[in-house]
Every structure is written in structure tokens, then in C-alpha cells.
Amino acid sequence: MTSEDQPLEPTFYDAVGGEPTFRKLVDEFYAGVAEDPLLRPMYPEEDLGPAAERLRMFLVQYWGGPGTYSQLRGHPRLRMRHAPFTVGPRQRDAWLLHMRHAVDTLNLPAEQEATLWEYLERAAMFMVNTMEE
Ligand code: HEM
């Protein structure tokens, strides 16, 4: 039996548990950012909630979930959107530290965890826009 409106393979988004998984990831990450003396001052808004929502919608869309991010924000162009902020090696390392902790709280199967983590590490390297300390 075939079906044309159902993908044969679940998306990575579905495989790791869908929206609740990405919500937990981003909530854990922002709990770390909220306490980080280097990263916290970088966020323009007093309330980290809207920034958390943008990151969550982006990751959901990237991994095959609903495309709400682009409906609301347009093309991601993430490097360009980070250009106003100093993202050097220290900021990247701090970002990855909180993200590593957040990924650990998900207790994903090893293969899924590696897939997610390799992407996040690569994306964080890509976002660096200055080598100055
Ligand atoms: C490497 C260190 C990084 C730092 C220091 C950093 C910092 C920031 C800051 C300060 C903002 C603005 C907050 C806001 O949304 O109002 C932002 C936005 C955002 N960041 Fe990052 N970021 C980093 C890496 C990443 C990575 C690796 C990703 C994706 C995997 C990412 C995804 C996003 C998204 C989706 C937004 C919202 C863009 C928008 O629609 O306006 N960031 N980031």
C-alpha cells in the first residue's frame, strides 16, 4: 500500500519526539543563557521568552516540523541576523556549553543525539563573525 501524503520515513523532528523535545531543548538552553554573564547582556529584550520562541521555531522547521519560523520571520539568513552581535570564540563556546547541557537533558538515543549535536556544533562555528576577544 502506498500513500502520497505520508512520508515513508518519519522526519528527524518526529523521530526525536516532535514539538515537546524542541521546547525542552530550548527552555533548558535559555535557562543557562539567563545565568550567563557573557551571553545574557547580548539579548536586546528584557524577556528571553520571544528569543527562545524564535530559536525553537527555527530548529523545529530545520528538522522537518512545521514551517512557522519562515512564515513569521522570512528566510532564516542566520549569519546575517547575527551580524549585529559580537560572536567570537568565547561567545560560541558559552553558547555551546549551554546547548550541550540542554541536549544532555533530552536523553536521546546515541545516534540521534550525535546527529543533533554535530549540527549544533557546526552551526555555532558558522555563526562566529569575529576572532577578537
Ligand atoms: C555561536 C553563538 C551564538 C550566539 C552568541 C547567538 C546569539 C544570538 C542573539 C543575541 C540573538 C538575538 C536574540 C533574538 O532573537 O532577539 C540570536 C538570535 C537567533 N539565533 Fe543565535 N546565537 C548563536 C548561535 C546560533 C546558532 C548556532 C543558531 C542556530 C542553530 C542560532 C539561531 C538563532 C535564531 C533562529 C535567532 C532568531 C533570528 C530571528 O528570527 O530574528 N544562533 N542569537
Automatic annotation (TrEMBL):
InterPro entries attached to this UniProt entry: GlbO/GLB3-like, Globin-like_sf, Globin/Proto, Hemoglobin_trunc
Residue runs in coiled coils: none
Signal peptide from the UniProt entry: none
Keyword annotations of the record: Heme, Iron, Metal-binding, Transport
Keyword Cell inner membrane: no
Keyword Metal-binding attributed: yes
GO molecular function: heme binding; metal ion binding; oxygen binding; oxygen carrier activity
Pfam families hit by this protein: Bac_globin
Source taxon at top rank: Bacteria
Homology family: Belongs to the truncated hemoglobin family. Group II subfamily.
Protein's name according to its UniProt entry: Globin
Lineage: Bacteria, Bacillati, Actinomycetota, Actinomycetes, Micromonosporales
